[in-house]
Design goal:
The structure is a homodimer.
Chain A lengths: L5 H15 L11 H8 L3 H13 L3 E4 L3 E4 L5 E3 L1 H10 L6 H8 L4 E10 L3 H6 L8 E10 L2 E11 H4 L14 H7 L6 E9 L3 H6 L8 E9 L5 E10 L3 E8 L4
Chain lengths: ~250, ~250
């Protein structure tokens, strides 16, 4: 049986209290002095333990106010859902809206539509010709009134110029359905997932706590000719999101 | 064979030079003017090509100093590969080893096997009874001699106690194959992906630069009875890894 170091034991005890609900979201964690006495350990050990829990996103240390159990309900994102809806030909449902309402929370979003010469990365992913333009639909998304994540979807300008995709405002049946109607259904997607620290702009727009990384999820959708017809870039604050994929083994 | 656009051809030439080592880590990439002359292309094409390589994590553009081959290229992880190998019944191939060797780099790993009472999170995912034990195979993985990521696989003790999984050392045909032989093939997996700042311990073991987040990839494998038989936790430094999933739309 692997032995835990002292600070790991303290962290484990606190973690258990949080996971079992003994310490609930919003509750204050006992002070360092209290924890030193409770566990008979040094201040340094208490700090290492709290540092561990902070890194796991379980607690939030606020200067002068104390340490609290985080409101920790990461939103479960299922990137396969969007694709499933397309398969089933169901009324198209925004997968973010679906994820949020499934948790009994209230989604909202602001959309800005513009025509841009995209960054080299996006241009490359869309296989645009030199100087090629894209329509981008930028979304800032809210949950229960708080900014939550961003989702920017790029489309080749030539492909969508005459469609609703290039016009401002929401598309009730979804941009993916419009692509289908234009003769470019997405039959394959490639999802790239990475993480990094946020830019200053992202920190501000998404009101991130200091030290919160973001997960970047980039989906490229291909039509039956293997032409990329959409690039969707989601920036997901790591303290508020969890991404889940489910894979089934094919029968022989 | 799909035709490559001009900038993709330039990107491909530079990529080849980097992968073959003609351009080594830390080397300066020729200036835009030099590249324009070498390949007889416009500045925009050069920029698109460099943007492509930057996005792949191969090069680093530094203001006023120029463009350099990155010290560390992000390793492309394809979590679906492990599952594909299982499907095809091919000789089992560690997907990390596969990803690394595919890039012409040298993989290595150290494995420690122990019996533990796992954290509440792992215990819950493995559906262990109260106080239940797990065998954990902890791997610290290296690429070209540098620590790169960790992968800890947990198995219910009662299931694997008598098998190779509970014994120290590498299992050439893979632990997944051993689970199959024990009558518990994994026919479904659920992958949870999140990100956070590293713990102090992870920073040290993985020699992380300050401010580098980690991606946490947790795979739970289920047998035909829908019993969880394995939980694999990978901790992937965000500056060195990219995760990719590919999804195909099923035909109606």
């Amino acid at each position: 049986m692997a032995r835990l170091s002292l600070y790991q034991q303290v962290a484990a005890a606190l973690r258990r209290a949080i996971y079992t609900g003994e310490l609930a979201p919003g509750d204050q964690i006992p002070t360092e002095a209290d924890l030193m006495e409770t566990y008979g350990v040094s201040r340094n050990t208490v700090r290492l333990a709290l540092g561990e829990l902070e890194n796991e996103g379980l607690i939030l240390r606020m200067r002068r106010r104390g340490t609290f159990v985080r409101e920790r309900r990461p939103l479960l994102m299922r990137p396969q859902d969007e694709f499933r809806y397309l398969e089933q030909g169901e009324p198209r449902f925004d997968s973010f809206v679906h994820a949020v309402t499934a948790e009994g929370r209230k989604p909202d979003q602001r959309i800005e539509v513009s025509i841009v010469e995209p960054s080299p990365d996006i241009a490359a992913r869309l296989a645009l010709p030199k100087g090629g333009l894209a329509v981008v639909r930028r979304r800032l998304r809210y949950v229960d009134g708080r900014p939550y994540n961003t989702n920017d979807s790029y489309f080749p300008f030539d492909l969508v110029a005459a469609s609703e995709i290039a016009r401002p405002g929401n598309i009730t049946r979804g941009a993916n359905r419009v692509l289908e109607e234009l003769g470019h259904p997405q039959i394959r997607v490639v999802d790239d997932i990475s993480a990094r620290m946020p830019t200053a702009d992202e920190s501000q727009r998404l009101r991130l706590d200091p030290g919160t990384p973001v997960i970047v999820h980039i989906r490229v959708g291909y039509d039956p000719e293997d032409t990329p017809v959409r690039v969707a870039v989601s920036v997901l604050p790591a303290d508020k999101h969890l991404i889940r994929y489910e894979l089934e083994r094919r029968r022989h």
